[in-house]
Amino acid sequence: MNIKNKRVKALVSLGIAGSLVLGLGACASSGGAAGGGDKSIQLWVLQDQLDSAQKAAVETFNKTSDVKIVYNEIANDGYQDKVRTAMGSNQAPDIFFNWSGGSIRDYVDAGKLLSLDDAIAKDPSFKDAFVPSIFDVGQIDGKQYAVPMRGTQPVVMFYNKSVLSSAGVTAPTSMADVMADIPKLAAAGVTPFALAGAGSWTELMWLEYLVDRIGGPEVFKKIEGGDTTGWSDPAILEAATQIKTLVDAGAFGTNFGSVNYGSGGTSTLLAEGRAGMQLMGTWEFATQLGENPDFAKNDLGYVAFPSVAGGAGDPSDVVGNPSNYFSVNSATKYPDTAIAFLKSLSSAEYTDALLAGGEVPTTTATATKLDTTPNPDFANFQFDLVKNAPSFQLSWDQAISPTISAPLLTELQKLFNGQDTPEQFVAAVLALK
C-alpha cells in the first residue's frame, strides 16, 4: 500500500499504528559485511520521526557487546535501489531494514541473506517472543530470513457510528450484511463505503481480503512464491466478480475514481458523515485523531473484514502491513552478534520504546502493556486482531515484484472503473510475468 509520507504524518499525530512503509535512500557509512571497521557491523535503518527506538536499542546493545553496531540512518528516497547496489558491493550493510516478502526475495535467491533457522532451533524463545502470524511473514520458501522490528498495521473496516445507527445498520460481519447495508445507507443519502479510487492501492485491500476469505491465504502464497498460474485460481475470479457486484450496487458511490485518501478525501467523508464506512489500514485511526479528534474519540468504530459464506478462508485472517523487518547479510563477519541484536528486539525496553512512540509492537509481551497507551481500546482491538490471526498476509504490492505489482494495480483500477470485466481482469493478470 503506497501512501508513504502520508502514513508517517498520521503516525506522528499520535495514533496507534505501526510499521512505516516508506522508500529509503541516502547514505551509509563503510560497510561491515564486506569489511568495515574492526570489530563492528553496519546497521541500516529508516530515517523517520519514529526511529528513536532503534537508535536506543543499538546504544543499549553496544554497552555490553564486544562487537559494536554502527548505526546508519538512511534517508527517504531510493532506499531499495541503494540496498540493491550495496548488496552487490563491498559496502553492504550487515543488518538492514526491509519489508520482507518481495523486498528480500532476490537476495534470498542469490544466497545473500543469512537463514535464521539454526538460531531459532537452538533458542526457540527467539521466535516464541513474537506474535506467530507476524514472525512468519519473515519467511521465504519456508525459511526465516527476517525478524519484526516495528509495530503492526492490519487493514480493518472503520465506520461512523452515528451514520450507521441513523440508517438502521450495524457494522457488517459478513458480505451478506455488506450487500444488505448498501441500499439502506444509500437511501440515507450517504456513500456506503468511502473509497479513494484515485490510488488503486486502496482498491487492492478489497481484492486481498476477498481472495483470502474465498480461497484462503494459500491462493496468494502460490503467486508470491513465483507461480503466476496462481492467478487462475477460482478465488481470483470470484473475488473480481464480487468487486463488480459491489461497484454495480453503488457500494462506493459514483465518483470514487477521483477521490483521494486522507484529509479532504475519504477520511473527511467518513468523519463528516458523508460515508458510512471505509476499509483502511489502522493508520486511519491516527489520521482521524489528528484531523478530527472528537470524531475519533467518540464516533469512530472499527471491525474486522467480513466473512464470505462458503469461503475456504478463515474469517480471522488479516491482510495489511504485518511489520517492518531486519535481515542479516550472509557475508557478515559477526553473525552471532547480528543474531544477538535481533533477539534484543523482543526485550521489554524495546517494546516500551515502541509503545511510547505510538506503535503496537509485535511481541507477545505487548498485550500486558496496551492499557497504558494513549488509546487503549483501539490498541487492544488491533493487537488482538493480529494475535488471533492464523494468517497475516503482506500487502500484495509489497509482497511481489514491482514488475508485477505495478501492472496489477493498473488492471485492478480498470476493474473497479468498469473498463474490464472480471474475466478480462483475470486474463490480464495471468499474462503478467
Mean pLDDT figure:
89
Number of helices: 21
Total beta strand runs: 13
- Estimate the helix proportion, in percent: 40-55%
Q: Could you please say which CATH topology of the largest domain applies here? A: D-Maltodextrin-Binding Protein, domain 2
The class by helix and strand makeup works out as: alpha/beta
The major beta sheet can be summarized as: 6 strands, mixed
- Per CATH, the architecture of the largest domain is 3-Layer(aba) Sandwich
Sheet-strand content, in percent, reads 5-15%
Tally of individual domains: 2
CATH superfamily of the largest domain: Periplasmic binding protein-like II
> What overall geometry do the principal axes of the alpha carbons give?
globular
CATH C-level class of the largest domain? Alpha Beta
**C-alpha termini separation:** 21 Å
Radius of gyration: 21 Å
Low-confidence stretches: 2-31
What does this structure look like?
The protein is an alpha/beta fold and 433 residues long. The protein has two domains: 5-152 and 323-394, Periplasmic binding protein-like II (D-Maltodextrin-Binding Protein, domain 2), CATH 3.40.190.10; 153-319 and 401-430, D-Maltodextrin-Binding Protein, domain 2 (3-Layer(aba) Sandwich), CATH 3.40.190. 42% of the residues lie in helices and 13% in strands. The chain has 21 helices and 13 strands. The chain has helices at 5-12, 52-62, 79-86, 102-109, 117-122, 125-128, 132-135, 161-166, 175-187, 201-215, 218-224, 234-248, 266-271, 283-291, 293-298, 335-343, 348-356, 376-387, 396-399, 402-416, 422-430; strands at residues 40-46, 68-74, 95-98, 139-140, 143-144, 147-148, 153-160, 191-194, 275-281, 300-303, 318-321, 325-328, 392-394. Strands 7, 8, 9, 10, 11 and 13 form a six-stranded mixed beta sheet that branches. The protein has a five-stranded mixed beta sheet with strand order 2-1-3-12-6, with helices on both faces. A two-stranded antiparallel ribbon has the order 4-5. Helix 12 (234-248) packs across helix 21. The longest helix is centred in the middle third of the chain and has 15 residues, at 201-215. It is globular, with a radius of gyration of 21 Å. Keywords: Signal. Pfam families: SBP_bac_1 (PF01547).
